[in-house]
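Title: Request for sanity check on Phosphohistidine phosphatase SixA prediction

Description:
We are preparing a figure and want to confirm that the structure record we downloaded matches what your pipeline produces today. Could someone re-run it with the sequence below and paste the raw structure tokens into this thread? We only need the token string, no images.
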Amino acid sequence: MKLWVLRHGEAVSHARSDAERALTSFGQQQALISAAHLHDQALDAILASPYVRAQQTAALVHGALQAAPPIQTVPWLTPDSDPLAVIGHLEALGLDNVLLVSHQPLVGNLLSLLVHGNLRHPEPMQTASLAELHGDWPLAGLMSLQVVRHP
């Protein structure tokens, strides 16, 4: 399995709620730079947080890829979601090549859990950072972090 974890691009600092914060023009550029690293990947799914900035990031990535699957919005990819629950959802999907578009602190904690088996070493993920993990199955401590690309 290949798992790609993308943090949304830079977002405006103020909105009516955190969920409504939109990407800045710089954040849009960041998302497109990260999308370029996925150009040759045959993704089975693009899963995104319902927050505006994650939806916009996922849409930019989707638009930059040829033959990308439709974006699926899932409620379990918000900033404060439980990384263990995310792993459970990924297990249930049973897919081989998945892109998650989400937020800190979830993305850093998820990477730590998948690679180290614990939450003690969250991966520092800048806006639009893209992590690539490989493993037989998305289980705590059983995936290896191949690379983290920062735009």
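Thanks, this matches our download. The domain at 2-149 is CATH 3.40.50.1240 (Rossmann fold).
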